[in-house]
Predict the 3D structure of the following.
Amino acid sequence: MASCMFVEPVSVPLPVASGFLLGTYPLDSTQKQLLEGIYLVDAGAGVFGPTVVLKWTSKTHLTVLTGEKVTYLVLGAGRLDSVFFFEGYWRSQNSRRTGSARFEIRKDRGGRRLMGDSLASPSLLVEGTIGDEGSSIPVVFRYQWGIRPEVQDQRFWIIAHRGGGSMADLHPHSENTVEIIRIAERYGANGIEIDVRLTKDDMPILYHDNTINSRLVQKTPMIGPVEDYTFPQLRTFVRLLHGERIPTLEEALTTIVYETNLKLVWLDSKTEGRDLVKRMVPLIQQYTAEAAALAVQGLRDSLEILIGVPTDAVYEELLRYPTFALIPSIAEKSLDKARALHSAVWAPLWSGGVNVGENAIAHSEGRRVFVWTLDEPPFVREFVNSAQYDGILSDYPMIVAYYHYVR
Amino acid sequence: MSDNVKRVTLWFAILIVLPVGTMSQESDTLYTLTVFVGGGYTRNVSKFPDQLQGLQRGGTSGTVRVMWKPEHLLKVGFETGITQVYYVEQRNVVSPFGPTNFTARLYTVPIMLTFSMPFSGGFEGYLGSTSYILISQTESFGNSVTGVVLSIGFSAAFSYMKPIGNDWAIGGELKWFRIEKSGDDNVMLHLVLSYRFLEW
């Protein structure tokens, strides 16, 4: 009954909408670094659980990550003298609960410490309230310790499924859109997976399913395989669930390179037998180079764009490509196929469990190991804590980020 | 419980409970096969996105149904036909790819197992579990596409038939199709002719 499952999106309050932060000064890098860490929840544990992680997920967004509660806060920040102010919104992904949020760190509760006063009290309390259906809930986070340097420095890929994963559910943005890509980092992701398929006229677009259907698009008389329609038809007459147009791969990569600091893109190849690889490779090369140029100027981090190889047909197609060994790829099938493709990443399915033996072999060959698609908090914790994986693909990147940073 | 399940449960309750109070069990053991041929107007009553312009909800519809009447009140039968779900026509659509006309016709061929119970005075209620073959024909930017998908769904109908001979009857039928995959609800008003072509 997919057609009746469309639910109005949660109306998420816009961060920094009230002017609470107007007139404040931005935090410097030292203050930001001091704020990051693991906090005990003195008040508000019913919403956030006993501990949370505060992590800067972009230059302007501080995200509060939780584990099993699957709840998060996205905050803007500013300071006046020794008082620090935060405003944004919170949201539970297990329900429709959401609301605005305001916090502050008072001068004598950590503000002076963040300002570099070595004589100040070492305690750091983030105190405030979150709105919840007309009422407000008091929330207090108490700083416990920083994120361990080896965890902070480790290259660990937290990859949001379908451009943003389950965040698209009840969220005012559809999956596989430039709109969801723009905000994926706020939820702890440093990489994204997006689904690429070809239209009838060979345009690579972002779309997951093989048919136009009510799971992904608004009501339309255009039904059947996506590949039967040309790009002008799809672009002009089909709207995604939340009203967006279907993006091209090129638009998505432009957004990633110029509007985010995402470090990895996993292009899952959905069209078989029509040279999708040949269409993607020039775009991969172009946008990897553009990101590298920006990285040299210090405007963003470097970016890896890899072709996902989910099926034997895509494997064969990539293998036929003249310079396949030079094309960065993620082999989702066997480790043997990862070797044959010279894949940078081997990505087994999570249901195979933590595979210590093969993971060690892959690592010894210089390959990274990602696992997909891991959504349940206990499994996320198990896979993260196994220290066997270099990255996790998830619909809930904030859970992966939480368990990674609390290690 | 979903709205659809509630709706279907209510229909079953109406079909089963009402006749008990209005009719007694028939005493003979005559079996009959009757064919119903109907046609008329259909209107799509589902919700559409605001930006879908050129929508024509009305159209035509035709059905053929064969019902087996056993020795008890509940009849069973098979129904098929063709129904326009809706039609969209947009002229001179301006787009970054140039102007185009857009036409799209969505219609369905139901394949339905249907049950019916008589009420008093020639009224009868129907309820069906249906597979819908959805067919769309669209054209724009010089590309014609015929798309076909299969959907589950439900149907219900309420009819009045007046005998016009030993085996013939004529009447009207109010019908509802629910097509899950496309999220469409169509309501139909049919003129129906029936003929009892076999009895034993």
Notes: DSSP finds one helix and nine strands in chain B. The longest helix of chain B spans residues 3-22.
